Amino acid sequence: MPITPLETDLLLVIDVQYDFCPGGGLAVTDGDAVVPEINRIARDFAHVVITQDWHPAGHSSFASSHDGAAPFSQVTMPYGAQTLWPDHCVQGTRGAELHDELELPQAEMVIRKGYRTEIDSYSAFFENDQKTPTGLAGYLRERGFQRVFCVGLATDFCVRFSAVDARKQGFEATVIESACRAIDLEGSLAAAKSEMTGLGVELMPSW
């Protein structure tokens, strides 16, 4: 039985953009299948926030910005290890747009992240240095939200980091797995699930 969301519950829709869907620059297998599921779940929520990956051209997390580097290889940035990605979600491109079939008229805010050239951003709450905030935590606190339900792309990166940071910021966090899809890069999905459950994130198979 699905639960009935409270006024203190919020649905966080993470990076459902064309570059993460089939045919996109960083396509997640079956990524577009989350759209109807998110639409169905969202109908139960009065409060929705959306995140949008929003990189400038030549972003430091792109493999193309590093001579001879292959996509999905690792480098060390000032803030730690960084996976190098294919170019994706470049500001103003079709790939950066939110999926047209999302039906989220009640969405109250869109958080754009990853727009600083020198630092990547997976989490809805912080850049990858874990110091630079997006402002979402303050927004949730001021609005009185207590519980965050995470859906979107990809389970093992932006959903994972967002759910973990929600817990670290003192919110209850649930990931609705049927409304997420993973990249699963060298075991990253299993690692994500282990970290999330270890920090008290609830993994809900479906809504």
UniProtKB/TrEMBL annotation:
EC class name: hydrolase
Q: In its keyword annotation, does this UniProt entry include Transmembrane?
A: no
Q: Name one GO biological process term.
A: pyridine nucleotide biosynthetic process
Name of the protein in question: Nicotinamidase
For this chain, the family text in UniProt reads: Belongs to the isochorismatase family.
Q: Which UniProt keywords apply?
A: Hydrolase, Metal-binding, Pyridine nucleotide biosynthesis
Keyword Hydrolase present in the record's keywords: the answer is yes
Q: In what residue span(s) does the Isochorismatase-like domain sit?
A: 10-203
Pathway where this protein functions = Cofactor biosynthesis; nicotinate biosynthesis; nicotinate from nicotinamide: step 1/1
Q: Enumerate the GO terms in the molecular function aspect.
A: metal ion binding; nicotinamidase activity
State the species of origin: Denitrobaculum tricleocarpae
Name the EC number(s).
Answer: 3.5.1.19
The gene for this chain is pncA
